[in-house]
Amino acid sequence: MNWFNKPVQAMSADDVLASLIDNLPKGGRLDPYSETWLFVQQFAVAELQALRIKNDNAKLDDAATAEIRGQIKFAKKLLALHAKADKVALGKPTAF
Fold this sequence. Notes:
Layout lengths: L12 H10 L12 H21 L6 H18 L1 H10 L6
Helix pairs in contact: 1-3, 2-3
């Protein structure tokens, strides 16, 4: 078996985040008041606002619009991460 000739499937940023969220450790938590989370949250909110403005451009083609919508979805998932982490820590269902 030749391991090096196997095709490598690239994961989108959305797939990576979904994988991380699905594999959060039991009992782990995200402190919504930590400086790190506040920084990440502020970044994601600003990015989300910028992406929404960019998506309103009527000159975008379908591919560009789809890419921006994917980035918007990623930013929303990132912002929802603390709620997901809290549910995992409390043992509640973790459906998004």
